[in-house]
Structures are given as structure tokens and as C-alpha cells.
Amino acid sequence: MSLSAKEKVIVKDFFAKVSSRSDEIGAEALARLIVVYPQTKSYFAHWKDLSPNGAPVRKHGITVMGGVYEAVSKIDDLAGGLLTLSELHAFMLRVDPVNFKILSHCILVVLSMMFAEEFTPQIHVAVDKFLALLALALAEKYR
Amino acid sequence: MVVWTDKERAAISDIFSKLDYDDVGQKCLSRCLIVYPWTQRYFGAFGNLYNAEAIMNNPMIAKHGTTVMQSLERALKNMDDIRNTYAELSVLHSEKLRVDPGNFRLLSDCLTIVIAAKMGTAFTPEYQASFQKFLSVVVSALGRQYH
């Protein structure tokens, strides 16, 4: 499964279109992750405030979304471009890769919520593929 | 036995009360066939599924989407015993339709996304959690009779 040239354009265009609200997307996606999938809180036990609308969660959502945008800019070589992030997740954070899938789902839900008209099935499939490939690139250094 | 809190029951009922089954059903099923094209294998007799436009305008797909939503309503009305409510449907999907149960989750994810589009910010994280719990119970019940 790889992105066609057309799909890369769809992904880049869509993320450019929604970039002014990228912070909101990231914060909302992470908030949903910990509410809908409470087991993910295990990675954030070191935060004093784990409420979905609290500062740590929202700030981290923004950080994560920044990573997604970095991946968009490196869409032609995700594995190479995300090497450092992969090492971070593999050796330091050690996030179980199953969580990449569920965060991707939360991002899709938020995109659908915030951009109902724009998030057509055609854009949905391209973005879903992109997020899956992003997850694969992040897991590159795991073993 | 699945335990539902009052909040969860209220959230799920509220979501369903806002749904136009014809609209949501058609959107959900067509989105699933477009985003996960391998699911089209079960719809060989449904006519033209050649591209996204064809799928979205296909009347048989639309009709089936409504059928799916009506089944989900049965689960809503029997929330404390979805397992038995869906026993026949599970046999149908396993013995006759031979649907890989993995596909139920794919359709659920598409339904969640379609409802998010419809409800916007009213689809709060708590609503999403309740609704996904409901769908996972349905999916589990559908997969029970497979052997």
C-alpha cells in the first residue's frame, strides 16, 4: 500500500487547507484519545493533569500535530524523513504501535467533525493511507 | 454482561434521535466501500461500483445502508441483550454472507466518522466513547456465531 502521486497531492492540499486550525485538530485528537481509549493514559502518568481539556493534553496534541505536518512535508520519503522521530518512539517513548492506529482514527474523527464538507470519502481514503504509512515509518526503528 | 451507565444510554439514544437513517446509512456504507475497497467483494450483485462517484450514487448501496441502520436501531432498543438480538444476524453473516468479521470494525469506524461530520462539536469525546462502546458490542455480537 503506497500513496499514488494524485493522493500525495490530495494529502498536501488538504493539510495546507486546514493548517490554520492545526493546533485545534491536534489538541482535540489527543483529548479524544485519552477519553475514548483510557488505556492510552498509561503513557502520560507523569503529568499532573490528565483532563482532556487540561493544558498538558492540549499542548501535547499540538506537538503531535506538528509531527504530522512534518511528515506531510516529507511525504516522498516518510521512513527516511522520520528517522529521528522513529528512534524517539522506539528507544525512548516505547509507545506500542497499536496506539498509532487509534490516534489516527481520532485524527480522522476530528477532521470529519471540523471539516464535514471538505472531508469527502476520496480525501478520507488518501489521509487514512497517509496516516497508516506515517505509523509504519514511526515504527521503523522498533525492531 | 455489558454494563451501561445512564450517561452512556442517554448519549447513544441522543445520537440515534438525530439520525436520518437513509442519509447516514448511504453515507456510511459508501464511505466504507471507497475507503476500504476490498469490502466491495461482498457487493458483487450491487451493480456499478467502479469508482467513488458510482458508489455514492448507487441506489442499491443506499438501500442497504438504510437496512444496516435499521438493524442498529434494533440493537439500540435491546441494549441489554444485543448478543441474543443479533444471534440470527450473526449466523447470516457467517454462514450465508461469509463476511470476514474484521470488516464490521471497518464499517463501524466509517459510521463514527459520518456521525462526527453530521454532529460536529456536539459529538463530544464522551459521546464518541459511548457510541464506540455501543458499536464494539454490536460488532462482538455479530462475530459470535462464527466457527
From TrEMBL, chain A:
<dbReference type="GO" id="GO:0031838">
    <property type="term" value="C:haptoglobin-hemoglobin complex"/>
</dbReference>
<feature type="domain" description="Globin">
    <location>
        <begin position="2"/>
        <end position="143"/>
    </location>
</feature>
<dbReference type="Pfam" id="PF00042">
    <property type="entry name" value="Globin"/>
</dbReference>
<dbReference type="InterPro" id="IPR012292">
    <property type="entry name" value="Globin/Proto"/>
</dbReference>
<keyword id="KW-0479">Metal-binding</keyword>
<dbReference type="GO" id="GO:0005833">
    <property type="term" value="C:hemoglobin complex"/>
</dbReference>
<dbReference type="GO" id="GO:0005344">
    <property type="term" value="F:oxygen carrier activity"/>
</dbReference>
<keyword id="KW-0813">Transport</keyword>
<dbReference type="InterPro" id="IPR002338">
    <property type="entry name" value="Hemoglobin_a-typ"/>
</dbReference>
<dbReference type="GO" id="GO:0031720">
    <property type="term" value="F:haptoglobin binding"/>
</dbReference>
<dbReference type="GO" id="GO:0020037">
    <property type="term" value="F:heme binding"/>
</dbReference>
<dbReference type="GO" id="GO:0072562">
    <property type="term" value="C:blood microparticle"/>
</dbReference>
<dbReference type="InterPro" id="IPR000971">
    <property type="entry name" value="Globin"/>
</dbReference>
<dbReference type="GO" id="GO:0042744">
    <property type="term" value="P:hydrogen peroxide catabolic process"/>
</dbReference>
<comment type="similarity">
    <text>Belongs to the globin family.</text>
</comment>
<keyword id="KW-0561">Oxygen transport</keyword>
<dbReference type="InterPro" id="IPR050056">
    <property type="entry name" value="Hemoglobin_oxygen_transport"/>
</dbReference>
<dbReference type="GO" id="GO:0043177">
    <property type="term" value="F:organic acid binding"/>
</dbReference>
<keyword id="KW-0408">Iron</keyword>
<protein>
    <recommendedName>
        <fullName>Globin domain-containing protein</fullName>
    </recommendedName>
</protein>
<keyword id="KW-0349">Heme</keyword>
<dbReference type="GO" id="GO:0019825">
    <property type="term" value="F:oxygen binding"/>
</dbReference>
TrEMBL record, chain B:
<dbReference type="GO" id="GO:0031720">
    <property type="term" value="F:haptoglobin binding"/>
</dbReference>
<dbReference type="InterPro" id="IPR050056">
    <property type="entry name" value="Hemoglobin_oxygen_transport"/>
</dbReference>
<dbReference type="GO" id="GO:0019825">
    <property type="term" value="F:oxygen binding"/>
</dbReference>
<dbReference type="InterPro" id="IPR009050">
    <property type="entry name" value="Globin-like_sf"/>
</dbReference>
<feature type="domain" description="Globin">
    <location>
        <begin position="3"/>
        <end position="147"/>
    </location>
</feature>
<dbReference type="GO" id="GO:0004601">
    <property type="term" value="F:peroxidase activity"/>
</dbReference>
<protein>
    <recommendedName>
        <fullName>Globin domain-containing protein</fullName>
    </recommendedName>
</protein>
<dbReference type="GO" id="GO:0042744">
    <property type="term" value="P:hydrogen peroxide catabolic process"/>
</dbReference>
<dbReference type="GO" id="GO:0020037">
    <property type="term" value="F:heme binding"/>
</dbReference>
<keyword id="KW-0813">Transport</keyword>
<keyword id="KW-0408">Iron</keyword>
<dbReference type="GO" id="GO:0005833">
    <property type="term" value="C:hemoglobin complex"/>
</dbReference>
<dbReference type="GO" id="GO:0046872">
    <property type="term" value="F:metal ion binding"/>
</dbReference>
<dbReference type="InterPro" id="IPR000971">
    <property type="entry name" value="Globin"/>
</dbReference>
<dbReference type="InterPro" id="IPR002337">
    <property type="entry name" value="Hemoglobin_b"/>
</dbReference>
<dbReference type="GO" id="GO:0043177">
    <property type="term" value="F:organic acid binding"/>
</dbReference>
<dbReference type="GO" id="GO:0072562">
    <property type="term" value="C:blood microparticle"/>
</dbReference>
<dbReference type="InterPro" id="IPR012292">
    <property type="entry name" value="Globin/Proto"/>
</dbReference>
<keyword id="KW-0479">Metal-binding</keyword>
<dbReference type="GO" id="GO:0031838">
    <property type="term" value="C:haptoglobin-hemoglobin complex"/>
</dbReference>
<comment type="similarity">
    <text>Belongs to the globin family.</text>
</comment>
<dbReference type="GO" id="GO:0005344">
    <property type="term" value="F:oxygen carrier activity"/>
</dbReference>
